From TrEMBL:
Annotated GO MF terms: hydrolase activity
Record bears the keyword Hydrolase: yes
InterPro entries (UniProt xref): AB_hydrolase_fold (IPR029058)
Domain of life: Bacteria
Protein's UniProt name: Alpha/beta hydrolase family protein
Gene3D superfamilies named among the record's database cross-references: alpha/beta hydrolase
Keywords of the record: Hydrolase
Organism: Nocardia tenerifensis
């Protein structure tokens, strides 16, 4: 199948919670990322659909706890749409599975792994290695190396977020490296309509993982993009994800 051809695995049923302009999309960044990137990824699609958006700024001393606290706070006003990137997608899935009555839908972008055994997870290995380098060499040296090996859009985004999370960035990366990703049983219990978005040429977030998630989540659709697509316009995550959920 051509990488840009959308494929759907399983029907995407209407949510039991009809979406209205009063609903909020909570956007969770990936490892080492920030609210600014999550906002750019999802806010344009929210504006187009007259949905509110909360882009969560991670607490680098307690990343997952800060995500879950933001989800709880937003859902206190009514059911929400949960959108996450990488680590944020994992937390989105976990929270939505635990709160089916408070979840309208899920957009899980760039999933990195399935299950608690992350010894071979590229994202976990990258986060752990970067944390070690930061502790050994300091922020400026690691940013310089990162920029030399990254496309400009990613280098600029990470430079901004890494500097904002310093000096707690190594702890945030270590937390991400130790995170136990949702397993097959958890993915199978997710009731909310879910869009899984994969960048087919992203080695850190393998395409096969996204396919596995979409096959396991009962009411899911998988959509394919490329890293060039994402770099040209991060808003492709929101537009692509929401388009896969007919009730949004």
């Amino acid at each position: 199948m051509h990488p840009h051809t959308p494929a759907t695995l399983g029907p995407v049923f209407d949510s039991p919670h009809p979406v209205s302009a009063a609903h909020t999309v909570v956007a969770l960044p990936g490892t080492g990322s920030d609210a600014d990137f999550a906002r750019r990824a999802f806010e344009p699609a929210c504006i187009a659909r007259r949905l509110g958006v909360v882009a969560v700024e991670p607490d680098p001393t307690a990343v997952v706890a800060s995500y879950r606290a933001a989800l709880d706070a937003a859902a206190a006003a009514g059911p929400i749409v949960v959108a996450g990137i990488s680590l944020g997608a994992a937390v989105a899935i976990e929270w939505a599975a635990e709160h089916p009555d408070r979840t309208v839908g899920v957009v899980a972008a760039l999933p990195a792994w399935t299950g608690p055994d992350t010894a071979a997870c590229p994202a976990a290995l990258s986060a752990s290695a970067t944390a070690s380098q930061l502790r050994a060499d300091g922020l400026d040296a690691v940013i310089e190396r990162m920029r030399a090996g990254s496309p400009p859009w990613l280098a600029d985004a990470l430079t901004q977020s890494w500097r904002s999370q310093w000096p707690n960035l190594p702890a945030a990366l270590e937390e991400a490296a130790d995170y136990k990703w949702p397993g097959t049983e958890r993915l199978g219990t997710l009731e909310a309509p879910t869009a899984v978005i994969t960048a087919v040429d992203d080695p850190v977030h393998p395409f096969a993982i996204a396919e596995e998630w979409a096959a396991l989540i009962p009411h899911s659709a998988i959509r394919r993009i490329t890293l060039a697509d994402l770099g040209a316009n991060p808003a492709i995550l929101g537009h692509t994800g929401f388009a896969a959920l007919p009730h949004l």
